[in-house]
Amino acid sequence: MPRNARLRAYLVAATAAAFLVSVGPATPAAVAATPTTSTVADAIATTTGPEATATTVIATPTIVATTAAPGPIAATTAARTTTSARTTTTPADQVIAIAKSKLGDRWAYGAAGPGVFDCSGLVIYSFKKAGVASIVGFGRLRSARALYAWFRDRGLASGTNGLPGDLVIWGGGTHVGIYLGNGMAISTLVNGVRVHSIRATTARFTAFLHTGIAGTATTAVPRTAQPTAVVAKAATVTARRVTTTALRLRSGPSTATSVISTLAAHAKVGVVRVAKDRSGRTWYGVLVGGRLGWLADWYTRAI
Fold first, then answer.
1. What is the rounded CA–CA span in Å between residue 282 and residue 297?
2. What number does CATH give the domain 91-209?
3. What is d(CA 118, CA 191) in angstroms, rounded to the nearest whole number?
4. Distance (Å, whole) CA 80 – CA 93
5. Alpha helices, DSSP H only, in the chain?
6. CATH number of 228-302
7. What CA–CA distance (Å, rounded) separates 102 from 281?
8. Element (H, E) at 227
9. Computed from CA positions of residues 260, 264, 270, 274, in that sequence, does the dihedral angle turn out positive or negative?
């Protein structure tokens, strides 16, 4: 090869070598083809090689699990709120619950608990335990007949409008039980304490004895749409009294008038009128639930 040709070949080779040194080694085809984004949903895009992509794939489930963690905490909070909710019970609810707790207990004449009862014994036991013994004569009325006479003399016996917690009389006073509502009662039969229909006993249904414990009587004068001055004038309270027993509120000053409702024992009322019946007995006109009703003086006392 001529001298000049060899020189040109040397220069070309040297130039090529210098270029390769400055560029560095070629990237492998597998690496060059690596995608720069992950196929996992919501993974973060990366351009730093396969290790960063793998890290992104692992991180995604971790983040999802962390986000879901508060779920049980919210459920626990809701459970506490539900548990702390209060329920309101009436004296009737308490009397009935106590009587039902004795279901199956056996009968014995004259027994008044705690594990053996006769019919009046179950009534007195349940009312005493519920804290309303005054409504059944403080336990002194130890027979169905005595209870019937006591309520009847106070105008609290009738054949209709029974409410839970009222008493039920059968056979003219031969048997007594506690009314549950919907035509059902609980009483001590010869085969023990049972729940049964008021029409299912051998002795025929006679009357409900209205105890007034199914709810709390409202005695405050309500505010209405009438002008304030008119209400004040119509409801001027001249005295205040309290019932000494469960007492019927009547539409007029006489036992012959219709019954509006029954007030519980120890209900406080404001007197707005006074009247006497044909026998010379005093009756008090009171406002209950926005309506004028009449109470017998001899079953109330001044406060």
1. 5
2. 3.90.1720.10
3. 11
4. 25
5. 3-23, 29-32, 50-68, 70-83, 91-100, 119-129, 144-153, 228-234
6. 2.30.30.40
7. 43
8. none
9. positive
**Sign of the Cα pseudo-torsion (203, 205, 206, 208, in order):** positive
Answer yes or no: are the C-beta atoms of 283 and 274 closer than 8 Å: yes
Give the type of residue at 34.
T
Nearest to 37 by CA among 29, 19, 49, 27: 49
For tokens 């396969």, the residue is 50
- Domain positions in the chain: 3-68, 91-209, 228-302
pLDDT bucket at 34, cuts 50 / 70 / 90: very low
- From residue 156, how far is each of 29, 107, 171, 192, 217 by CA, in Å? 103, 28, 18, 28, 16
* Residue 213 CB contacts under 8 Å (≥ 6 apart), including other chains: 90, 91, 92, 95, 132, 135, 165, 246, 264
Amino acid identity, position 75:
A
- Write down the pLDDT at residue 241: 93
Tokens 């054949």, located at residue: 159
Give the three-class secondary structure for 24: coil
| The two three-digit tokens of residue 229, written as one number | 């001055």
Query: Looking at the DSSP assignment, which residues form a beta bridge with residue 201?
Result: none
As a whole-number percent, the residues of the chain with pLDDT over 70 amount to 63
Enter the pTM of the model: 0.49
Are 158 and 210 in contact, with CB atoms under 8 Å apart? yes
* Most distant CA atoms of the chain, gap in Å: 160
Express each pLDDT in 168-178 by its tens digit.
999 999 999 99
The angle subtended at Cα 184 by Cα 180 and Cα 190, nearest 5°, is 105
| pLDDT band of 153, cuts 50, 70, 90 | confident
Dihedral (CA of 249, 254, 256, 257) sign: negative
Name the residue among 248, 246, 245, 171 with its Cα closest to residue 207.
171
